[in-house]
Amino acid sequence: MNADSCPQITEDALDRPLEGEERQLADCLLSSLIRPDAIVDKIIAGPKFIAVTAAGRMGLSSLLGSRPREHEKTLVHQMTAKPLREVAALIRRPSPFAVSLGFAALNAANTPDPTDVEPSNFPADDLIAGLGKNKITGLVGQFPFIESLKKRVGTFHLFELRDVADAVPRHQWERRLAELDVLAVTGTALLTRSMAWFLSRAPQAITVIVGPTTPCSAALFSRGADYLCGSVVTDMEKVALGIHAGLPFKKIKKNGGVIFAQWEKQG
């Protein structure tokens, strides 16, 4: 990838090679796993999400529509009973399904004990709105709170690949990112190999990473993130049922078994 060009981000079944600054970020994430030797008990793959359970914890990742390819039909079986470090290493593969499975394992390795987590009663959009009050604020990804967020911040810029009204044109991304005071990025930017690119193009901004794919990892703080807004599974059975049923994350959360959590960069 040309360091001066916009990344070729896709949300389809095409290969997603790991190169340059995205590879450096992936290596940093893998080298800082908290429980790398925990053994995978179960892998739950649904239409929208995939989950990995190990040592009483569950990690989640969006699939962004990906499915196992023919040569990956037995991948879930192959990775069961393996240490999390081996499964998490799948994030280095180009296959979208393997990348999502790898991030679910990475999240299982890093997610804190639910009993040690104080649920956040401060939604991610409230955090972004508070940081972005009267400020230039950018959002990467589609979220249900976009319209309300626009009214709560100063100038608002949406960075979105799909054909969405008022989104910043791709050729203006770098210029607009360099102007931001606050940047919020979907955790799925890790899946599309674009997280490091966004973080490096807005080093001046206070940056928030949002969504259930977001890892609880200090590696993201070292790369420019200031806040991580993720999820911790408290009832693996309930969440597994929602994943199998193909529910969107909002409904999985509503059914119970997931709490929102926020981590702030220290120092």
The helix tally amounts to: 11
> How many β-strands, per DSSP?
9
Overall mean confidence score, pLDDT: 93
Summarize the main sheet. 6 strands, mixed
Please list the strands of the largest sheet in the order they lie side by side: 5-4-6-7-8-9
- SSE order: HEEEHHHHEHEHEHEHEHHE
CATH class of the largest domain: Alpha Beta
- The portion of residues assigned to helices is 25-40%
CATH architecture of the largest domain: 3-Layer(aba) Sandwich
Q: Which structural class is indicated by helix and strand composition?
A: alpha/beta
Kindly, what is the distance between the CA atoms of the first and last residues, rounded to a whole number of angstroms? 32 Å
Structural shape: globular
Overall number of domains:
2
- Radius of gyration from the alpha-carbon trace, in angstroms: 17 Å
CATH topology of the largest domain: Rossmann fold
- Sheet-strand content, in percent, reads 15-25%
What does this structure look like?
With 267 residues, the chain is an alpha/beta fold. It folds into 2 domains: 20-111 and 236-244 and 250-255, Enolase-like, domain 1 (2-Layer Sandwich); 124-233 and 260-264, Rossmann fold. The protein is built from 11 helices and 9 strands. The strands form 2 sheets. A 6-stranded mixed sheet has the order 5-4-6-7-8-9, sandwiched between helices. The longest helix has 15 residues, at 96-110. It is globular. The mean pLDDT is 93. InterPro entries: DUF364 (IPR007161), DUF4213 (IPR025251). Residues 129-258 form the Putative heavy-metal chelation domain.
